[in-house]
Specification:
Elements lengths: L5 H16 L4 H11 L4 E7 L4 E5 L9 H9 L1 H7 L6 E2 L8 H4 L3 H7 L6 E10 L2 E9 L8 H34 L5 E5 L5 E4 L1 H8 L5 E4 L2 E4 L2 H15 L11 E5 L11 E13 L2 E13 L8 H9 L3 H11 L4 H8 L3 H15 L4 H10 L9
Antiparallel strand pairs: 1-2, 1-5, 3-4, 4-5, 6-7, 6-12, 8-9, 10-11, 11-12
Helix pairs in contact: 1-2, 1-7, 10-11, 11-13, 11-14, 12-13
C-alpha cells in the first residue's frame, strides 16, 4: 500500500472519531476504511446466537438473517475468533487451521464465496452479554490479497476504532440519562443486566453516600445490603433487561428496601425497576439497560404540600390546611385542635374537600392526597 498517504489515513481516522459523537456516521467511517484499503466491501458487525447485524458498505439483507448468524456460529472458527482479544487482526481463512479446510465448509461455500468475500481481515471490537462486535474488510478474488503492509496499517487504525466505540457508548448513555433524569430530585440509576451502573444522577450519588442507605456499591454494581433484597433486585433488573427472540422486555417491578421493617437504622427506599433503552455500540444495538428509580419513603408531608393541594383541587386556605394535616396522619380531632377550631367546623371543611376531590371518605382522601405528593418534596 505504498500509495496510501498520511492525508488519506488522517481523513479515515477523522471519520472514525466523528462517528464516536454521532452513531449515524459509522457507515461513513466504514466506507472510508473500505476506500483506504481499496477493498470491495467492509462492515462493522454484531454477532450472537440469534442475530447477525451489520453497518456495511454493501446492502446485503441476506447476510443479516438468523440463518447467517447460525451459519457463523456453527463454524468451528467462530469459537476461536470470538475468544480473540479485542484489537487483534486476524484472517478467518488462516487462523488456527489450514485455509483449505475452512473453504470446504458451509460458511465459506454458502455465505462468503457467493459474495466474493475472498480475501479478508478482521478485528474484534467489543464483547458483551454473549455478543461480539468486529470490523471486517474484504477484497474479491480478482484483487490482491491483503499483505503485511495492510495488516500493519489496520493495526494502527483499530485502536482508534476501539477508543471511538468507548466514547460513543459513554456519550450515548450519558445523554440518555442527562436529558431525562439529571435534575430530578429522586435517585435514578441506569444499569446493565448485571446491575453494573452505567450512569446515575446526583440524587442517586447522594443516596449511596448516606450511611443509613440500604443500597451500596460493590465493584461498580448496585446491590441491596440485605441478601434477600439483593436477590430480588437482581431478578427485577434481569427481567427488565431480558429480550428473548423478538419479544418485548420484561416489565420490571417495585421493591421496598430494606424488606426487614425492624431495621430502623436504615432509610426505607422504594425502588422501581423498568426497561429503559437499547444502548448502541458502533451504530448497532448493544445491551438493553434498565432504569432503577429510587425514592425515600416519606415520613412527613413535604414543605409546600398545603399550597400544592390548594392549587390542585382549588381549596380554600382553611380546607388546604385541613387536607395537609389529615394527609400527615393526624385525626380529625387532632386537626381541629391544631387549628383551634371545632370538630364540627372541621367536618364542614371535610365535606367541601370531599366534593372538590371527588372522594367519599377520609381514607380515600388521604390516599389521593399522598399520591399527589410532588417529587421535589422528597428525599431531603
Amino acid at each position: 500500500m505504498a500509495d496510501v498517504t498520511i492525508e488519506a489515513v488522517s481523513a479515515a481516522v477523522g471519520q472514525i472519531y466523528e462517528a464516536a459523537y454521532d452513531q449515524e456516521r459509522w457507515l461513513s467511517a466504514v466506507t472510508g476504511l473500505r476506500d483506504l484499503f481499496k477493498a470491495s466491501r467492509s462492515c462493522i458487525a454484531r454477532l450472537d446466537q440469534r442475530a447477525f447485524n451489520a453497518v456495511g458498505t454493501v446492502d446485503d439483507p441476506g447476510l443479516c438473517t438468523p440463518e447467517a448468524a447460525a451459519a457463523h456460529m456453527r463454524d468451528p472458527i467462530s469459537t476461536v475468533v470470538a475468544a480473540l482479544p479485542v484489537g487483534n487482526i486476524y484472517d478467518r481463512a488462516r487462523i488456527a487451521e489450514d485455509g483449505a479446510a475452512f473453504r470446504r465448509r458451509e460458511l465459506w461455500q454458502d455465505w462468503m464465496r457467493p459474495r466474493d468475500m475472498h480475501h479478508g481481515l478482521a478485528s474484534n471490537l467489543l464483547a458483551s452479554n454473549g455478543s461480539y462486535w468486529f470490523f471486517d474488510i474484504h477484497r474479491g478474488s480478482r484483487q490482491d490479497a491483503f499483505g503485511a503492509d495492510d495488516i500493519d496499517l489496520l493495526q494502527k487504525i483499530v485502536p482508534h476504532m476501539l477508543r471511538a466505540g468507548q466514547i460513543g457508548r459513554r456519550l450515548e448513555n450519558t445523554s440518555a440519562l442527562a436529558s431525562a433524569f439529571s435534575h430530578l430530585p429522586f435517585g435514578v440509576f441506569l444499569v446493565n443486566g448485571h446491575q453494573r451502573i452505567v450512569q446515575m444522577n446526583e440524587a442517586a450519588e447522594a443516596m449511596l453516600a448516606r450511611p443509613d442507605s440500604p443500597l451500596r456499591l460493590n465493584g461498580g454494581t448496585i446491590v441491596a445490603s440485605n441478601p434477600r433484597d439483593a436477590q430480588e433486585l437482581q431478578q427485577l433488573v434481569a427481567d427488565a433487561c431480558s429480550l428473548p427472540d423478538g419479544a418485548m422486555p420484561g416489565p420490571g417491578g417495585t421493591l421496598m428496601v430494606p424488606s426487614d421493617h425492624k431495621r430502623s437504622d436504615l432509610t426505607p427506599l422504594v425502588l422501581s425497576v423498568a426497561p429503559f433503552v437499547d444502548a448502541r455500540a458502533y451504530g448497532l444495538a448493544s445491551e438493553r439497560c434498565a432504569v432503577i428509580m429510587v425514592t425515600e419513603v416519606a415520613r412527613r408531608i413535604p414543605d409546600g404540600f398545603e399550597t400544592h393541594v390548594r392549587s390542585l383541587f382549588d381549596l380554600t386556605p382553611a380546607e388546604a390546611r385541613l387536607a395537609a394535616t389529615l394527609a400527615s396522619g393526624r385525626t380529625l380531632k387532632e386537626a381541629a385542635a391544631s387549628s383551634s377550631i371545632t370538630v364540627k367546623t372541621c367536618r364542614t371543611y371535610l365535606e367541601r374537600i370531599f366534593s372538590k376531590t371527588r372522594t367519599r371518605q377520609q381514607s380515600e382522601l388521604v390516599a389521593l392526597l399522598k399520591s399527589t405528593e410532588p417529587l421535589s418534596g422528597r428525599g431531603g
